[in-house]
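User: Study the chain.
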Amino acid sequence: MQRELSADFDRFVLDRSTALLRTAVLLVGDVGHAEDILQTALMRLATRWTSVHTAPEAFIRQVLVNLARDRWRRARRRVSEQELTNAGVVTGGRDPADTVADRDAVRRALARLPGRQREVVVLRFFAELSVAETAEALRTSEGTVKAHTSRAVARLRELLGEKITENVHGV
């Protein structure tokens, strides 16, 4: 039984680490810090695998959000636009050269959102979670998720123009 759980954990890490790293990068705005919080999140997941192996994705996303928030609290400052702009983005294989400028603009716009709005946008649109899953990950109500989403999308539209609806999934 223990070997099966260990193999399941290893499979989960291999299958999901790239997507989880992308989520972490978008949350903290820096590849190095994203790698650090992902490693910490995976260690926490490993120690709790027997109890969360049926829903590891939800658990690890919640840990990533909490670790990102802890980082923001410790720093007592927001991630600057420059840091997020310079952050590399890990992609899952398709990276057409003609979308690089759009991705950069989206990252800069994300950096200008308040923390909660950024978290909601990252989880809803980049991690492709439902409203309910996002609310669970952020430990808030679905109404709050919807409100933050609405405000964030409106602000992103101001910052980016209408191309946000076309390119938000391409980052």
Q: What stands out?
A: Residues 78-85 have pLDDT under 50 and may be disordered. The chain has ten helices and no strands. Residues 2-170 form a domain with the Butyryl-CoA Dehydrogenase, subunit A; domain 3 fold (CATH 1.20.140.160).
